[in-house]
Amino acid sequence: MTFDVKNKTVLVTGANRGIGKAILEEALQRGAAKVYAAVRNVDSAAPLVDAHGDKVVPIRIDLDDPASITAASETATDVDVVVNNAGVLKTASAIAGDAIESLQFEMNANVYGLMRVAQAFAPVLKANGGGALVQLNSVASVKTFPNFATYCASKAASYSITQGLRETLREQGTQVVSVHPGPIDTDMGTAAGFEETASPSSVANAIFKALAEARFHVWPDPVAQQIGEAYQSFAENVVEADKQEESVG
Length: 249
Prior knowledge:
- The structure is a single chain.
- The chain has 249 residues and is an alpha/beta fold.
- It has a single domain, classed as NAD(P)-binding Rossmann-like Domain (Rossmann fold).
- It is built from eight helices and seven strands; from the N terminus they run βαβαβαβαβαβααβα.
């Protein structure tokens, strides 16, 4: 399955800044008819409306509020592409005093939030011909960094769910993409203390290129590409291979 965003309707969570904002702008540059800017506070999307006019429609989605996700899916019934970009990060090692609380916080947004978005919007995508679901995971999905152990665990879980969605949603013609950025120049990247970062636009460009080329994994920046090259054989021969469920022990 390949997907061209031209004349399509896109929804991006966390669209008011960072990677989400870059994805919204890239979608419009590539000819999207409309982009729902899904944010916790719709007022935060006002600058996007000022810049792009009625092609940007603010809509409330808070990954901590399941009702907001359901309500958004009942409003944005014309969506062809859902990009689940919003996420959270805590700095916590596995033995930190607040490690369990940090993991619970991250799992709620990064994993349960993804599942809620997928459950709410899968029927919408199906009704509109299949479309695409894009999940922002991370290089931390496949490599744990000790100072961010709980975040890495949540991203490993979201990557696992994304793999399951790829198989499940294939039946309804929905293309699923798993995006694995490295350090990116965002507020989250600054808070994490990343020194050498890539542009959010590099992630946005890589996403739409992957949609057009029907690729599942996206490694958009130099750090991600290095990890992706090492991971490629496993990805192709295990993750993306069509294997029978009964082979799983």
